[in-house]
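Open question from group meeting: does this chain pack into something compact, or does most of it stay loose? Before anyone orders reagents, we agreed to write out a predicted structure and look at it together. Recording both the input and the output here so the notebook holds the full record.
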Amino acid sequence: MRMKCMALFIFLLIPLISLTAKDNKSIAILYPVLHPFFRETSAGARIEARNLGIEVIIDGPENSNVEDQLMILEKYISEGVDGIAISVSDPEILIPTINKAVQHDIKVLCFDSDAPGSQRLSYIGTQNTNAGVHIAQAVLTQIGERGSVLINLGSSNQANLQERYHAFTSYLEVYPEIQIKSVFGGHGDYEDTVLQLEKAIEESPEFDIFVGFDAASGPAAVSVWRTRGLKKDIIVFDDQKEVLEGIRDGIISSAIVQEQKLWGELIVRTLSKALDGESIPEFIYTDTNQITLKNYSYYYPEFR
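Structure tokens returned:
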């Protein structure tokens, strides 16, 4: 009799378990590369997910490789997650698969790096044209209206980096005595960026300032400057530990930092609303701040 009651209890419980599992929303956040820059994004997403009772999966390639990101995206489409947020490494290659996810009734948004022309619902992140102007203005403040520049673009296929670079060069067109001596790409990889930066310095040793558009630029530049004992100016994006230490130690002139933790919160909140049938804005822009020796201890007191 006891065994029959237990069997009946389990039989009645199975639909409840299935319903609960089905009702739990699942969101995959896919990075272009698993880089320390995105740790804060993951942290923000997990905090918001706990508040909303949503499962969040974090994934991305170990190295910056669009084919690997494509396979990861395909994986989560086949697993049937409810929502996907993706920082797109190459729009041309990834847009067909983003659209495929939408056709499978998966809510998709882009963050950090967009896929314009895709069927994604929304973009969350920096307004990269404004960010490109911001870094151009920082360069003018640092070296004036004359000087030579070395640039690490990062990955030439990422929309966010392209937008920053085009805005940067357009803004500086009216300053003909600012010359771009070298533009290279470290593909988001620290070691590759160090090698490419070393090569650019050897080829143009009389440069005045190094400008980095991606998250690998700052840590790579700090390493090269320390090794070589350079006194040239550096302006980069983002706020990794090495960048903040570089600002504190007078190696980096300034950094344009983004709100990547807020991205994580907004990703989960926005996809949750979309899954509930609410309308969401097509663009959700976050701010940038310029961090220098004068203000870094205010924003990052732990690096005093």
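Observations to bring back to the group:
Confidence is low (pLDDT under 50) at residues 1-22.
The longest helix spans residues 2-23.
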